[in-house]
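Predict the 3D structure for this chain.
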Amino acid sequence: MNLDPSLALAQVQRMLNDFLRLLPAMVLALVIFGIFFLVARTVRNLVRRVSTRSEAHRNVGLVLGRLAQWAILLLGLLIALVIVFPGFSPGDLITALGISGVAIGFAFKDILQNFLAGILILLTEPFRVGDQIITGDFEGTVEEIQTRATFIKTYDGRRVVIPNADLFTDKVTVNTAFEHRRSQYDVGIGYGDDIGRARELILEAVRSVGGVLSRPEPDVLVVELADSTINLRARWWSHPTRIDVLQVQDRVLEAIKMRLTHEGIDLPFPTQVLLFHDQTE
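Done. Predicted structure below.
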């Protein structure tokens, strides 16, 4: 098969002429889209800044900011396409999306699920940025809630990215949902000790610790008559963050141990008595 070089050259020349004819429109379209991109970022940041002034509407502001950003970007894209291709109309895009919508839905099913779950999480606010949560095998502080995933910083300094669809369908424990959080610890005393006296000493020790809230009041309950101990459960309230809970618990346990030991209350440990019999008898 013989190729005519003149025909190939003419085709290349025609393509080059078409490109040069479209070049001003392409440059203008890029400039227009760039302006819309800057406007979209500005609107998103403005909505986010306004929403952060009210803690109750912070997540709603994030949703509105992102939706506004994507709407402005879509509008800028449509205008840029009309500038480059004058025969193009938004109706053509809608028709194309309608025809291929089912295929796109199957192809991006996981992405759409995470997107919708992220919107619902931001709107319903089961937790917020800064909350300390437990989900699955992960526990940490919520750093950011995006429309695709939620970022959690664990207490040992790692970042966990969890798809929003998983958070929306799985169980989530929000440790900082309320102002106060209760902690408890079981203390075993001897059967020969006075339960009322031990209860009073434990309460005094708990109340003396800084960080233990006076309202709700701490209490001590008898929870078990074990093999070698009478188990008393000390319960107290503190601020809900993990660092507060751990530090208060450390001081409470130290205070209980020191107070009971000082007052002569026995803190027994499990013991076993082994009897050996002479098998020849």
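The two ends are 114 Å apart (CA to CA).
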